[in-house]
Design the sequence.
């Protein structure tokens, strides 16, 4: 190896660094270090002028590696790697000494900070002396996409990707597309009929030549990495032949358990059969047998014979159908798994379990809907009478440190929408709304709030302490901070606006995808401002509510963004492989296999060569996490760019 | 079903509220239902600092139908009729007009006008005006005279006795 000639470039970062670190002294100190050929400083090293300074120096001073003392490598390592590359060096011969985030920003004493900056530069120089040029290999991209979740986010993302000419596998857990949006009556603030704008999109998915719709299916396992994922999908048995079923519904009409099984789509407000279609516009239009309730499937017999089989003229029912597991290859994944509403019984004082007339917004949504269990009649759930007084309570569990600390972002507008729709149906009813703040932040939302204020609604600014069902009606005490008075509201129907949470199995899917969740349980984005659709795992993107609370408008925008991010991968023939991957020193490796057990990406295998067992790293699968290098007992496993000798040389300097 | 103010055991006077809002609608387009309690009116109220009038709270009580509470209090009489609340309201509501209507309603119920405000009554009886306003301050901070804004100078009634009789007749007959 030829003698290193290192160039050190110290950045002022305006005054971000130079106000606390004596840049001049750092530059001069660097000149005294072994292997340093040249040391320079400049106000903004990341500017064009700074970049040219480095490029020219590489040529003029015949540099073999570059140390830039500046901000975090997360900020500008890539910038300077490109500068080095433009200057004729291998991009991986650049080492960053972080003297901003790790020095000038966290210290006040200029003398101490300058000494620390000198050490950081010296450590970087020590590593730079040992740096080896690295070659990045490329991997072929599978041009297909997987979209997980068939709500409006998944539908939007799938259609956008498919429109761009890529094959999309759309996996939906329930028997139909539609998700939460299919359960809504109208959408705020325009009061568009939700299913009227949603079902055409569902049909587009079903008819799209590039989309393979896998409804009533679940993702079992995901292997591989960006550009090349292999996904196992379980297509659950519907016990109905999809090719034969016409969706006529004769089976459900004749089911022996008709009207006896809780209807999840209608939030349990009515009962369905054991063979069912969640709602009439379901896509695909195929009936499904509920395996947890069907008498044939649970007990093996259904009276003398199953009535559904007799009713089905298409002969579509098949009790012998089995789950089918298929494997698909995709280059990118969009996660669009949506959300749950909090079960309000977690706040017992709000009486959700004490009275049938204390309901949630989603239950009210089904009551208002003309296709719902009451055909759009708003009625009390016990007496079936029209309510004379309805009271809404906002933020049930939201903005509450003991339940969900976040704002649900849809509750205020959902409640205002309901007030509008209820006022249309019940012009004389007393309508009350207890709120903390009304957050009407979107386009047209504030205008809608203004309209709602003139609907003869009683607004109480305060959180009720309890909801007390009595013989005379439901009693709520609320202190109204606007009139500074304690009010007693006697009402006959209470609608709770619950907090929103991640899906109950969000963590399980996160584990399969190797993505993270934030403290609220929703999936963690790459950056809250700049990478809202990305995850920390390459090739996996987030769409809609699964990343955090969103209304339909924001969900659709987010999903289009996620599709666009996925397309940046799918549209390429090849991708650069991860550079900082693990390599095996064949001499040292004893073939113990510990590395295999710790590798989260299944990137290592044990091979036998010349009667000797040793580990082999699959360069396309290795993500460079470093788990194997830490676990290897012999030091045979090394990470490129972070080899033991390189790191030890830095520690040696810093511990002097 | 219904709402009860546990602080005063008062119940909303829905009919009175409807009547007052009906009268307001004849005076202007915007109605107090639109009030979202930003309290800009109270923040700038001339009567608030000395006399503790809170126009936003007047509106909140009206919206709630708790009207007796207001007409039984002297507070509605403290308004100086500067009209700033109306001019500056982001929802185009006129608390000052609401206060006029509440005062009228109080008189109609036979409530006593507080002693301090009878001087204003005397002024109306003798001149037809509560205040003898000669200059005003505009929203942009300029001071304008009556002539600047195209108004005639204030004149006194030619026959004060006849004038007073006429005003009294109007008050009694509620013209």
Sequence:
């Amino acid at each position: 190896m030829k003698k290193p000639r290192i160039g050190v470039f110290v950045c002022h970062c305006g005054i971000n660094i130079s106000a606390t670190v004596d840049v001049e002294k750092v530059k001069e100190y660097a000149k005294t270090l072994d292997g340093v050929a040249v040391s320079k400083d400049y106000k903004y090293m990341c500017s064009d002028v700074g970049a040219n300074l480095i490029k020219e120096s590489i040529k003029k001073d015949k540099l073999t590696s570059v140390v830039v003392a500046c901000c975090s490598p997360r900020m500008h390592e890539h910038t300077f790697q490109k500068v080095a590359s433009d200057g004729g060096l291998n991009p991986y011969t650049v080492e960053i000494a972080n003297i901003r985030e790790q020095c000038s920003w966290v210290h006040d004493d200029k003398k101490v900070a300058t000494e620390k900056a000198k050490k950081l530069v010296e450590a970087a120089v020590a590593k730079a002396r040992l740096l080896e040029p690295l070659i990045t290999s490329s991997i072929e991209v599978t041009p297909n996409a997987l979209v997980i979740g068939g709500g409006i986010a998944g539908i939007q993302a799938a259609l956008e990707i498919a429109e761009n000419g890529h094959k999309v596998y759309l996996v939906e857990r329930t028997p139909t597309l539609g998700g939460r949006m299919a359960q809504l009556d109208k959408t705020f603030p325009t009061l568009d009929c939700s299913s009227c704008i949603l079902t055409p999109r569902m049909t587009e998915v079903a008819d799209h030549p590039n989309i393979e719709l896998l409804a009533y299916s679940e993702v079992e396992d995901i292997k591989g990495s960006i550009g090349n994922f292999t996904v196992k999908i379980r297509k659950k048995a519907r016990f109905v032949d999809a090719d034969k079923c016409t969706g006529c519904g004769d089976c459900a009409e004749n089911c022996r358990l008709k009207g006896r099984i809780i209807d999840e789509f209608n939030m349990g407000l009515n009962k369905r059969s054991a063979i069912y279609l969640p709602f009439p516009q379901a896509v695909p239009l195929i009936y499904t047998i509920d395996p947890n309730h069907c008498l044939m499937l649970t007990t093996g017999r259904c009276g003398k014979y199953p009535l559904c089989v007799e009713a089905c003229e298409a002969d579509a029912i098949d009790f012998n159908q089995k789950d089918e597991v298929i494997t698909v290859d995709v280059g990118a994944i969009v996660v669009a798994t949506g959300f749950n509403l909090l079960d309000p019984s977690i706040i017992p004082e709000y009486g959700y379990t004490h009275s049938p007339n204390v309901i949630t917004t989603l239950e009210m949504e089904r009551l208002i809907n003309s296709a719902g269990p009451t055909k759009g009649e708003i009625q009390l759930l016990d007496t079936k009478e029209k309510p004379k007084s309805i009271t809404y309570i906002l933020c049930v569990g939201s903005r509450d440190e003991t339940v969900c600390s976040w704002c649900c972002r849809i509750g205020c507008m959902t409640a205002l929408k309901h007030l509008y729709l209820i006022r249309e149906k019940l012009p004389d009813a007393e309508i009350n709304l207890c709120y903390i703040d009304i957050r009407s932040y979107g386009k047209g939302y504030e205008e809608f709030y203004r309209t709602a204020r003139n609907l003869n609604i009683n607004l109480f600014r305060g959180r009720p302490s309890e909801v007390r069902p009595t013989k005379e009606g439901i009693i709520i005490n609320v202190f109204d901070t606007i009139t500074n008075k304690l009010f007693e509201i006697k009402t006959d129907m209470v609608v709770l606006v619950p907090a929103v949470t991640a899906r109950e199995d969000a963590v399980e899917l996160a584990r399969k995808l190797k993505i993270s969740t934030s403290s609220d349980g929703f999936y963690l984005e790459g950056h809250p401002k700049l990478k809202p659709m990305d995850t920390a795992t390459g090739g996996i993107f987030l769409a809609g509510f699964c990343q955090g609370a969103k209304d339909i408008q924001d969900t659709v925008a987010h999903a289009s963004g996620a599709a666009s991010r996925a397309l940046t991968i799918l549209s390429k023939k090849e991708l650069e492989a991860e550079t900082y991957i693990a390599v095996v020193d064949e001499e040292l490796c004893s073939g113990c296999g510990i590395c295999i057990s710790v590798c989260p990406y299944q990137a290592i295998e044990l091979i036998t060569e010349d009667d000797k067992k040793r580990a082999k790293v699959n360069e396309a699968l290795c993500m460079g996490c470093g788990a194997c290098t830490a676990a290897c007992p012999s030091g045979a496993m090394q990470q490129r760019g972070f080899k033991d000798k390189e790191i030890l040389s830095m520690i040696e300097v810093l511990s002097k | 079903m219904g709402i009860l103010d546990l602080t005063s055991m008062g119940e909303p006077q829905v009919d009175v509220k409807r009547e007052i809002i009906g009268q307001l609608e004849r005076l202007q387009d915007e109605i107090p239902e639109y009030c979202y309690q930003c309290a800009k009116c109270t923040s700038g109220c001339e009567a608030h600092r000395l006399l503790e009038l809170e126009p936003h709270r007047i509106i909140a009580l009206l919206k709630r139908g708790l009207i007796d509470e207001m007409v039984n209090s002297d507070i509605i009489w403290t308004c100086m009729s500067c009209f700033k609340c109306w001019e500056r309201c982001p929802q185009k509501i006129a608390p000052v007009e609401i206060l006029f209507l509440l005062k009228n309603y109080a008189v109609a119920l036979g409530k006593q006008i507080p002693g301090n405000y009878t001087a204003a009554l005397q002024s109306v009886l003798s001149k037809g005006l509560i205040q003898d306003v000669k200059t005003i301050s505009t929203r942009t901070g300029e001071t304008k005279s009556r002539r600047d804004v195209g108004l005639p100078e204030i004149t006194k009634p030619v026959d004060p006795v006849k004038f007073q009789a006429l005003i009294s007749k109007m008050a009694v007959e509620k013209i």
Q: What stands out?
A: The first strand of chain B starts at residue 2 and ends at 5. The mean pLDDT of chain B is 88. Chain B has nine helices and three strands.
